[in-house]
Design brief:
two-stranded antiparallel ribbon, single chain
Amino acid sequence: MLGRVARRVQRATPRRTFTSAAGSDVTTERTKSLYFTTRDHIKGREVLEEFGMVSAVAVRSKSVISDMYVALAGLVGGEAASYTSLMNETMAEAVHRVQYAARAQGATAVINVRFDSNTTMNRLVFGMHCSVICYGTAVRCRPLKEVVPVSSPFVPTESKQ
């Protein structure tokens, strides 16, 4: 489900070229990888430069007809699939916007990623608004260089029999 949402967001978002603060051209491409983690580090990589916090907010709502259907279905109970997809779509959009902002600064990763969500609903009018904020620290990192321990060369011993 989330994969379909992410593909839909990627198709809906145009590719743009713009100049970053560093002066280099940045093209948002689907093939560029950006590490995205809730940890404060990325295993096997070292942080070279920290750009600071990046954040994005996404707010979405469903149609009135969808809200009425969910309200009626809520009388018998069960999962409100329409609102589940609303939350997933909103979160995916917030993540996409954070990644876009991080790439614009020249980052190769976003660490310490956090999410906060809020929903508001007006029962008289029907309608739920879902907002998600996503934030983290944009950094530029590179793979750690492997340290090969220096050992004495192997010298075969002669065995006398």
